[in-house]
Design brief:
FAD/NAD(P)-binding domain, 512 residues, flavoprotein, Glutaredoxin, 28 strands, FAD, five-stranded antiparallel β-sheet, 13 helices, Alpha-Beta Plaits, 3 domains, 28% helix, alpha+beta
Length: 512
């Protein structure tokens, strides 16, 4: 039997939103990437439909928002079913409604246009990880496929095959409660926004195309162990018990059940194997946080892995992916567990809901929760320094660059680091950063509106490709050169990277 053999810098397993986002980021960084997915094509199910402010900023930074043609924006979100205004300062406040089918199509086209190699109908059967590379064996439509790469990233969902094959620890709790949901055509029922009835929780929202999404939970009913998706009849029966309405005459387009399981991979990086998206963390998809968390994992990892795989940075840079995103994932899981208590609890949750309702009236509480859910408050440790911008995302500002006015997102379109100087006194820093010119773009600018806001008093910023501020003057006690070396590697590229190729993968990598 003929075996199809491929080589790549990185093999990504899973072509959902996180895997496709990662593939595009890797290509922006110059890494060769093969994506394996067992499905025949992109999802046809609407699934997650919420993009939060931080994700919109990321898509803007890659020039992808124009293709979405101004998706509907809602400022009103929720915390455990309690209304929450998500408005915060930034370019894309609130939450934006984009069906997952459209998100996958957008990211798939982008990654393919950058040169990612997508192999569908390829089911992973074996994974072998060595000290210098990995080998993945998959069953393809015409026979077995063997892919050798420097690194493997699992983006294959909460039931990750890669996680199972590698024995990665996935501690946490199984689901105890669940929501049944379905997209149904041909029914006419009232819209319900987290309506709590004596027997349970009911949610219904009719889309512009006439399809209604229903979700229902019966108080006190435990989650079932399921081998597959529930039957539509089960959803109809639960809906009638809770609401008294009959939706059985409708046509189900998609039926699904999701529980309040809460698990997280112990280490996001295990040698040459890394985990992102739902393969790294399992949580109830409340408020679209799961989708957004996975996309943000991919953007944090992509530029780092490309730099390491192409020999421009030491492999230790990948440890920062675990350090940064594991902590963010844990925080999201904790807030979702709290929301699940509020959302799915019966009479026993009444006092907790009343207290949270009072707290949400406080502006400081609202801003705190809105920042956490939207992802705009994420701040990573970036070395010594106390400036409030250090580690956070580059704040939204209109910047005059030469004769043009640009946003901070536009400066990041190439997927490179940016040394942004905002004061003439910092101009000499461009020469200091010149040895990193293949990885960091120098930009001299000023605030176009004359109002600096969060940039008040800032002379210069070093911004990573994911939009997080790695160095500030004044504010950082480390030197610019130290920060550049920390995040972008040695000041000169390795010979293989300078020639635009990686050394060949030797069979000795795999013990042959």
């Amino acid at each position: 039997m003929t075996v199809d053999r491929l080589e790549s810098d990185v093999v990504v397993v899973g072509a959902g939103p996180a895997g496709l986002m990662l593939a595009g980021e890797l290509r922006l960084g110059g890494a060769d990437v093969v994506v394996l997915d067992r499905r025949e094509g992109p999802t046809t199910q609407s699934r997650a439909s919420t993009l939060h402010a931080r994700t919109m900023e990321i898509l803007d930074a890659r020039g992808l928002l124009g293709a979405l043609d101004g998706p509907p924006c809602e400022t009103r979100g929720h915390f455990g079913g309690l209304p929450l205004d998500l408005t915060l300062p930034g370019a894309h406040p609130g939450q934006h409604k984009v069906p997952q089918t459209r998100t996958e199509q957008l990211l798939g086209d982008w990654a393919a246009g950058l040169g990612a190699r997508l192999r569908r109908r390829h089911e992973v059967r074996a994974v072998r990880a060595g000290t210098l590379g990995v080998e993945v064996v998959a069953a393809g439509p015409t026979g077995p496929v063997r892919v050798r790469a420097r690194y493997l990233v699992a983006c294959d969902g909460q039931d990750s095959t890669v996680r199972r094959l590698t024995g990665a620890a996935f501690p946490g709790q199984d689901a105890t409660r669940e929501l049944l949901r379905a997209d149904v055509a041909g029914i006419d029922i009232p819209d319900r926004r987290f309506e709590r009835l004596p027997g349970g929780l009911a949610i219904a929202a009719r889309r512009a195309d006439g399809v209604t999404r229903v979700m229902v939970h019966e108080f006190g009913v435990r989650a079932q162990e399921r081998a597959g998706e529930p039957e539509f009849a089960e959803v109809c029966a639960a809906w009638q018990r809770v609401t008294g309405e009959d939706i059985g005459a409708g046509t189900p387009l998609w039926v699904n059940a999701f529980g309040d399981a809460c698990r997280q991979v112990a280490r996001y990086r295990q040698g040459r194997v890394l985990f992102a998206g739902d393969a790294a963390h399992q949580q109830m998809p409340i408020g679209g946080q799961a989708l957004n968390l996975g996309l943000q994992d991919a953007v944090n990892l992509g530029w780092k892995l490309a730099a390491v795989a192409r020999g421009r940075a030491p492999h230790t840079l990948l440890d920062s992916y675990h350090d940064e995103r594991h902590a963010v994932g844990r925080r999201v899981l904790d807030n979702i567990r709290t929301q699940a208590q509020l959302l799915l609890g019966g009479a026993e949750a009444a006092s907790l809901r009343a207290l949270m309702g009072e707290l949400l009236q406080r502006e400081d509480v609202r801003r705190h929760l809105a920042g956490m859910i939207s992802g705009v408050d994420v701040r990573h440790a970036m070395g010594p320094g106390e400036h409030p911008l250090l580690g956070g995302r580059l704040p939204h500002a209109r910047l005059a660059v030469g004769h043009e006015v640009r946003s901070g997102a536009q400066l990041l379109r190439a997927g490179r680091g940016v040394l942004l100087t905002l004061h003439p006194a910092a101009a000499a820093l461009h020469a200091e950063a010149a040895p990193w010119a293949d990885r960091v773009s120098p930009v001299a600018a000023r605030c176009a509106d004359g109002v600096q806001g969060a940039l008040h008093g800032v002379e210069a910023l070093l911004v990573r490709p994911d939009g997080h501020v790695a160095w500030v003057r004044p504010g950082s006690t480390a030197s610019l050169r130290e920060a550049l070396a920390c995040w972008f590697g040695a000041p000169r590229p390795a010979p293989a990277a300078a020639e635009g190729r990686s050394p060949a993968l030797s069979p000795a990598v795999f013990g042959e």
